[in-house]
């Protein structure tokens, strides 16, 4: 290697963020917490306990509704509770005739918004549960605690922090709470995939906190481009380029990667070279795998970004046995849910896209006979305020979430529904004057929600308290929505 080439490689490597190393090859990115920047990093989010493998393959999909979804208009109380809901929500309230009725044996009648018929169908079939009033919590929290900041999660109502707390399942971004609970699961469950040639943690929505860990990588795939080997890495690609040029480029790149791995290089440079090489291998493996599978009988709507992401996830689930994967973890994201203005116009559009993507995804899984082995759950920054700001809603705290799949104990509401009252509401996170704020205090924590899903995936009990730092503060640690 000549010195100018070496300097160029070093300069490009310096541009890699300290928190992550990432390389994109043919629509594939490898994401990893940079060990070179490891000084002062928290310990691994979970100790290396044996996971419960076997019993058939399982896939878990995190569907993140970025911006803070107004789930209070997605799932609405009917009967005696509807009048109180309507009085508080005022101009935001969904008309009773626009609700698709369902029932809960313990809490009575409810309705999904008319633009969520796929949700109603899944719930009625017993394949969806509504997990009521979930959010980040340090411990069980009541209205009297709201004035004591030491008892509350970090930076309530702020998008960036709350997204991280949801994806870390912690009350503070520190220690074990610095890593994603999906990433912690991936580390635990890696032993269930001894024959996998690539990571079984994959994102169809780029980088995310949920899949980060100190000890494992996840793959970010583009739902908008075919997976293919990159020109230059493989001399067998782009045969229209003269063979001598292809071979020379391949040799130069290989020498650069070898240089990066030599003893005298920094840990960051070694990690960058390793990630670059891994990206090449992943692209080749996935391209070859997809060549052996026909496209599933579902042409996603090109205008629906979530549908394209879930279509890619469905293809990877279809190929999981071929990829040697017994446990898979996926991340998808749908943005646009920060409805401060024009909510009555914007929310229906969002729900229509969400409904289509989820419905088509579940239909595709059914055609593959994989419905029982795939569980999808929603998450979001926070719920919205019950009250209108005049044209929309502001940032809230607790909100409803939806978990669905054949293994879900569906057709029920998990946890008590919050009060919608404007006067004397015990669930309201009152403002500084003690007045009604319209922000609902969660009754169920993200840790309880996540731990229930982690158990289904095979994570052992002794690992859960490290994976979910605040879980031990809750008497109920399994919300019982998984069969």
Q: Which features would summarize this protein structure in a list?
A:
483 residues; alpha/beta; 11-stranded mixed β-sheet; 3-stranded antiparallel β-sheet; 11 helices; globular; disordered N terminus
Structure overview:
By secondary structure, the chain is an alpha/beta fold. The protein has one domain (3-473). Helices cover 31% and strands 16% of the residues. It is built from eleven helices and 14 strands. The strands form two sheets. Strands 1, 2, 3, 7, 8, 9, 10, 11, 12, 13 and 14 form an eleven-stranded mixed β-sheet that branches. A hairpin with a 2-residue loop joins β1 and β2. The protein is globular and about 80 Å long. The N and C termini lie far apart (58 Å).
What's this entry about, in short?
The chain is α/β, with parallel strands linked by helices. It is built from 11 helices and 14 strands. The strands form 2 sheets. Strands 1, 2, 3, 7, 8, 9, 10, 11, 12, 13 and 14 form an 11-stranded mixed beta sheet that branches.
Mind sketching the topology for me?
Layout: H1 3-14, E1 20-25, E2 28-33, E3 58-65, E4 75-77, H2 80-89, E5 99-104, E6 108-113, H3 117-124, E7 128-135, H4 159-168, H5 181-189, E8 201-203, E9 217-221, H6 243-260, H7 267-291, H8 305-318, E10 327-334, H9 343-367, E11 374-380, E12 399-404, E13 412-414, E14 444-445, H10 446-457, H11 461-467
Parallel strand pairs: 3-10, 3-11, 7-13, 7-14, 8-9, 8-10
Antiparallel strand pairs: 1-2, 2-9, 4-6, 5-6, 7-12, 11-12
Helix pairs in contact: 6-7, 8-9
